[in-house]
């Protein structure tokens, strides 16, 4: 079985955990689950970084000794991950004895290799960053990160010959394009390596100045620089160095890792760490996956600005799975994203309540009404059924591919294509009409086609929304256990269309993702949650505590927010050309002039209602801001609005000018 090992940064214990930490940790958890779903032996590591000046200062500020202080905050991180039900295999602390020993072995090995030397160094030292800055790196004499004046310190220290590996690292990054990803961070590291000669890394602090650290094995007057100590956690956690030669040991099994970090710590991970590994003759990590910042109103979250979001509160208030979905869907991995209660509510309402939740609720209640909760059989498939299956199969493949490329937002968007398509399929197949006509065989097929594809989507969502995924599968009459995950099962999930059992009992209703109302003032999110809130997250099996909403069958009028309506860009356009789709009887192909540079091609499923020639010259209303999508091989960019009455369909026409907006 192949192995997968994902790590988060080990977080500093000078501040309490917030949304930024939770994001990386939730991504790591989702990746671990994703690879488990693929049948791999997946492992996840997180932990806390507990040495260095920063921690000593934070402890002093609250009148505690360092050990007492780090124990308390480290426990806070651990309990946060419990409350967010993070499935990590290990929580490492840099104060663990085994870690300290590993760091000493690593130091000694690099020292013996001749890559560490003793020298005099004078530099501008920022206590916030725990590093020296050169004159050039300072901005107006201030630390570029903290905007504070660094202290000039001159002392004898030990240095790691990082410059020796500069050319080698450049070549490695050039030869392995996704070693650091996304690309912009790879370029950033390459530009750090180009031009300037890398400065050797000062890896010691004299004990006379700082005692809170790991003693250098070759000089007891010094402790190790915190970054050198911290980076080693990724291998010390696997039992290195004791098991380095043991083929059955954790190190052989799981190393190299897949690292997750934000852009703030790109340099230590992109430059210090690979050169340290190279010097120690250890294999490099697989990928460095770098994400952007969660911002609050364009500003990075920080304790000093008082704008930190408490993930416990958000998970408790909005539902843990919904919160996880939002985090992965709204941040394009690599870019910054803005966090707000409004964005979270919008995402939940549009994707979870309107799209996914509504689909489950409609289909299950129709099945209960028409088939008494019993899974109907699949009859002969129509073209529409085939199209739905094929599209869902392609979306599933894209989802898997994109997830592996850490493009979570795009992956989820791809998974939502069949969800949206299924809602449309319900409308176009009109099960209620089939029922009225007594066409029970076709009705059963329609419901079964829906349920099979709903099952596939639910299953694939497990890494992101573990609780809801299991509940959705159960609603479709299937049990799920993560103990049964393996490569064969996953292959079968993607390759086969039929997974459910005719005659099995399915749920009669579903209300997993109720619409969210903005019931709490925004500041509430920023408030520290209580112990009780944490408890609620644990007990909240539905993954959500919002107000219930009615979502039944075909007659339900779903209310939307005014803001949702405002998202539609409705425009007037003239049909310049109309013809039959070459490959689909039900589709027409249009060229529509929306007052833009070029007419748009729009494909519409209205062929059975109109003669194409009759439509040329008509001024219609078009939904202009839908993303382009392919329909039976032709790109469609927009949707022509129609009005339906019984079996009649007419175009929504107007006299307004091309490009006029409809509101
Ligand atoms: N201790 C070092 C890491 C050592 S790893 C060998 C450290 N700790 S930290 O507590 O400052 O954590 C930084 C990490 O927290 C970021 O790289 C990121 O994973 C996460 N985040 C903290 N704030 C964040 C945002 N506002 N947005 C996104 N992630 C952020 O650096």
Per-chain topology:
Elements: E1 3-7, E2 11-12, H1 19-37, E3 41-49, H2 53-61, H3 66-83, E4 90-93, H4 97-112, E5 116-126, E6 131-133, E7 151-160, H5 166-175, E8 180-181, H6 183-193, E9 201-202, E10 204-206, E11 215-216, E12 219-224, H7 226-231, H8 233-236, H9 250-254, E13 258-262, H10 266-279, E14 287-291, E15 294-296, E16 299-300, H11 311-318, H12 320-330, E17 337-338, H13 341-371, H14 383-404, H15 408-429, H16 431-437, H17 440-460, H18 466-475, H19 487-495, H20 523-526, H21 531-539, H22 562-566, E18 570-580, E19 588-593, E20 600-604, H23 612-615, E21 619-623, E22 629-631, E23 634-636, E24 639-640, E25 642-645, E26 648-651, E27 661-662
Parallel strand pairs: 1-3, 1-13, 2-3, 3-4, 8-14, 13-14, 15-17
Antiparallel strand pairs: 5-6, 5-7, 7-9, 10-12, 11-12, 15-16, 18-19, 18-21, 18-27, 19-20, 21-24, 22-23, 25-26
The structure holds 5'-O-[(L-methionyl)-sulphamoyl]adenosine.
**CATH superfamily (homologous) name of one domain:** Isoleucyl-tRNA Synthetase, Domain 1
How many beta-strand segments?
Answer: 27
The CATH topology of one domain? Isoleucyl-tRNA Synthetase, Domain 1
Query: Which structural class do the helices and strands define?
Result: alpha/beta
Question: What summary fits the major beta sheet?
Answer: 7 strands, parallel
DSSP strand (E) fraction? Answer: 15-25%
What is the C-alpha radius of gyration, as a whole number of Å?
Answer: 29 Å
Q: State the share of residues found in helices, binned by percent.
A: 40-55%
- Runs with pLDDT <50, length 5+? 520-556
State the shape. elongated
- From the 3D coordinates, which CATH architecture of one domain would you assign? Orthogonal Bundle
Secondary structure tally, helices: 23
What is the residue-averaged pLDDT?
91
Distance from N terminus to C terminus (CA atoms, Å) equals 57 Å
- Assigned CATH class of one domain: Mainly Alpha
Ligand species: 5'-O-[(L-methionyl)-sulphamoyl]adenosine
